[in-house]
Amino acid sequence: MNNRLKVLRAERDLTQAQLAELLNVSRQTINAIEKGKFDPSLPLAFKAARLFNLTIEQIFIDDEY
């Protein structure tokens, strides 16, 4: 799954650690999601969407479609 998390984070001048704190996950989790090595859980995807005031689909792009 591709995502725009890194771009959105950079646009808001957030570090991975700051975003991780806002989403209540580790910095390593943010890093893994940004690199496409880990797909977020649905609750985490919803938290990210609310934080950035976007829909899940605007952040996370399913490669299969």
TrEMBL record:
GO molecular function, one term: DNA binding
Domain HTH cro/C1-type: from-to ranges: 5-59
Ranges in a coiled coil: none
Entry-linked Pfam families: HTH_3 (PF01381)
DNA-binding as UniProt keyword: yes
UniProt entry keywords in alphabetical sequence: DNA-binding
InterPro entries, A to Z: Cro/C1-type_HTH (IPR001387), Lambda_DNA-bd_dom_sf (IPR010982)
Protein name as catalogued: Helix-turn-helix transcriptional regulator
